[in-house]
Amino acid sequence: MGQNNMKGHMAALLTILVWGTTFISTKVLLVSFQPVEILFFRFIMGFVVLILVYPHRLKLKDKRQEGIFMLAGLCGICMYYLLENIALTCTLASNVGVIISVAPFFTAILTRLFMKEEEKLKANFFAGFAAAMIGICLISFNGSRLELNPLGDILALVAAFVWACYSVLTRKISSYGYHTIQTTRRTFAYGILFMLPALLFFEFHLDLGRFANPLYTGNIIFLGIGASALCFVTWNFAVKVLGAVKTSVYIYLVPVITIVTSALILHEKITAMAAAGTILTMAGLFLSEYRPKNTKDFKADN
């Protein structure tokens, strides 16, 4: 594995480690904040931080690229999170967790359709997908029964598809050759702009006085700087280096990290079913990422 590829895998892993723990901060903030308020504040903070870290204006080489940035902001920043939040109000969190994890499969399909330079999907990708989905089901439905809620489940499925669109758009953006922080910041800007009309339809209150509570301030900083500014940059970097498909399979790890952090921080018990699901999910990830060395060598020789 090349050094650059290793950096890509490390960036993807770091991203998922943080994203898998955001539920704790979100849970704390939901006591006094609406989901759309958390979403708006975290991305505004993330946008400001990216400006401070890399205050260089992005000058596009081709004006047609602006449309790709707009679509990326609409999909990855605005629509995905809004759909996921609405889905959570209509169906069980476990349903949403499993359905959202289908995103890598959608990403693989869209990548094959629109990004011709990506590798052809091998049987191990589909076998890994199946193993990971079984593992995620064991984790998510541990101790509970499956309840179908058509509206919420469909919204979660659309959210997974929208994230797949974002992954493909990010891959396209990475081919332009711009700095990752600049492209992430521009995507944030469009995401926030598209989010503004949605604020009118949800219970949004500016009420900055709530941040006088250090607990709320600390958690929104974690979501804004860590989960948004840092992680979208590292995720986009991973997509640039590894490709949309290889990076997206790391999404399988989110339920695993969630259950581990629940045990460590919230002292929730890990059952045998959850442990089995964790092992299956990890196996699915490694199987999906597996690439025989002789295949690479054979291609290099030809």
Task: Name the features.
mainly alpha; 0% strand; single chain; 302 residues; 75% helix; globular
Proportion in β-strands: under 5%
Largest sheet: none
Number of structural domains: 1
Helix fraction by DSSP (H/I, runs of at least 4) = over 70%
Shape: globular
State the end-to-end CA separation.
19 Å
Topology, number of strands: 0
Low-confidence stretches: 295-302
- Give Rg in angstroms: 19 Å
Summarize model confidence as the mean pLDDT.
84
Pattern of helices and strands = HHHHHHHHHHHHHH
What structural class results from the helix and strand content?
Answer: mainly alpha
Count helical runs: 14
Protein name: DMT family transporter
Keywords: Cell membrane, Membrane, Transmembrane, Transmembrane helix
Main location: membrane
Domain EamA: 7-140, 151-288
Overview of this structure, please?
This protein is mainly α. It has one domain (3-301). 75% of the residues lie in helices and 0% in strands. The chain contains 14 helices and no strands. The chain has helices at residues 3-19, 22-29, 35-53, 65-90, 93-100, 103-114, 123-140, 150-174, 180-199, 214-242, 244-248, 253-265, 272-289, 293-301. The radius of gyration is 19 Å and the shape is globular. The chain starts with a helix and ends with a helix.
